[in-house]
Amino acid sequence: MNYKTMVNNAYNKYIKDWCEVRGCRPSHVDPEIGINGECYVCISEFERNEFQNEEYMERILSDTEFTLWQARQEFKEILLKSLISRIYLKQKAGDLSDCPRCGNKMDPKLSHNAFSRRADVYVCSTCGTHEAIEDAPCPPFDKVAKKPIEEWDFTQNIQYELD
């Protein structure tokens, strides 16, 4: 099962689950306006949130589907670690072209950039500041969501296929 099929199957099960919790059928919900002032999330939001939640996925998927989902998550983690290691080695060799987090140009001098708090790699100084703010324990910064590595610029063209 390829990644897109896995997400689509899980999304359809999510919609069914969402409707069951509210005592309705998917055919009774208008995808644009919902039902009773509520609507389920779009597939891209589902993929970024519910699809990443292990407990939720275990609840809505069959045992076989969940095993495939877990394998995909493990594969993704290994792939990201490998790619980050390769980026770091390139950076240490002097290739500081693009920030892996935002895609903007990095300062050509390594010490003018920041070492990421999320991965063993350098990021531009702006991203370093963003990560510091994300980690700040005091208001109003304690409410700032951390940008997951899966949403970093260098990951945007990666397909996490298991086929």
Order of helices and strands: HHHHEEH
Taking pLDDT < 50 over at least 5 consecutive residues as the criterion, the unreliable ranges are: none
Helix content: 40-55%
Q: What characteristic shape results from the CA principal axes?
A: elongated
The counted number of beta strands is 2
**Total DSSP helices:** 5
End-to-end C-alpha gap: 7 Å
Structural class: mainly alpha
Percentage of residues in strands: under 5%
- Gyration radius (Cα, Å) is 19 Å
What does the largest sheet look like? Answer: 2 strands, antiparallel
Mean pLDDT: 88
Strand order of the largest sheet: 1-2
Protein architecture, described:
- The protein is mainly alpha-helical and 163 residues long.
- 45% of the residues lie in helices and 2% in strands.
- The protein is built from five helices and two strands, in the order H-H-H-H-E-E-H.
- It has helices spanning 3-21, 43-48, 54-60, 63-92, 125-135; strands at 114-115, 122-123.
- Strands 1-2 form a two-stranded antiparallel ribbon.
- The longest helix is centred in the middle third of the chain and has 30 residues, at 63-92.
- The protein is elongated.
